[in-house]
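Appendix C: a fully annotated inverse folding record. The material below is reproduced so that readers can follow the format used throughout the book. The structure is listed first as tokens, followed by the designed sequence.
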């Protein structure tokens, strides 16, 4: 099976976590794009009263087109469940996220949720964070090059500004993304603390001690991972 088929395998398990009346955090990325129509079916076919809080403009547009009621995060007093994808998942259910450049909004919503469930295919399972994916860091456009220099002086790997064709990629917040190459020696907690205190850094793609469960599509079937 290809990765899309593995992602599709996780949807039934994910939908089973959604209950009528929930305020639902809806993530961003290719796996969530497959999930949103299933949420739409709960609302439109089964009459579920679900309120979505979306992690990106792209997800919000998709949800709205499917008649899923959506509110802004500032209007949400709580989030019962957040469902999102991940770029990497380590054995402790720590994550790297931000491949879709929505990491800040994702972290706001995922941290706010009473439960945060990750959907992924088995290629996202890693031994250590940074094994297959660089760490995204969202930074202000004003001093991005200065921030890059600080990061470059602190780590062993390479730091690059993410591009969208010929131009720098711009996030929903109007910022840049720096992608940081990690090594087996990189301590996620230490690096996050260093990065988050740099003036100009909005957030990092480290999602540490946030996920409560991971639903993973594998060649052997769906596996549910918990801490």
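Designed amino acids, in order:
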């Amino acid at each position: 099976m290809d990765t899309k088929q593995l992602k599709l395998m996780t949807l039934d398990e994910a939908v089973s976590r959604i209950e009528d009346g929930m305020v639902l955090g809806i993530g961003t990325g290719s796996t969530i794009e497959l999930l949103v129509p299933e949420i739409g079916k709960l609302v439109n076919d089964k009459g579920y009263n679900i309120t979505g809080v979306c992690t990106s403009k792209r997800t919000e547009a998709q949800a709205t087109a499917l008649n899923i009621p959506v509110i802004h995060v500032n209007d949400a007093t709580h989030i019962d469940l957040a469902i999102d994808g991940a770029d990497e998942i380590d054995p402790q259910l720590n994550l790297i996220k931000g491949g879709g450049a929505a990491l800040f909004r994702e972290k706001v919503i995922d941290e706010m949720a009473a439960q945060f469930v990750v959907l992924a295919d088995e290629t996202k399972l890693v031994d250590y964070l940074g094994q297959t994916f660089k760490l995204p860091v969202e930074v202000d456009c004003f001093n991005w090059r200065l921030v890059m220099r600080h990061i470059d002086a602190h780590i062993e790997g390479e730091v690059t500004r993410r591009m969208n064709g010929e131009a720098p990629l711009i996030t929903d917040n109007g910022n840049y993304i720096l992608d940081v190459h990690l090594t087996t020696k990189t301590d996620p907690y230490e690096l996050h603390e260093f990065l988050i205190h740099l003036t100009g850094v909005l957030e990092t793609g480290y999602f540490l001690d946030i996920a409560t469960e991971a639903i993973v599509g594998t060649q052997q079937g769906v596996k549910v991972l918990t801490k």
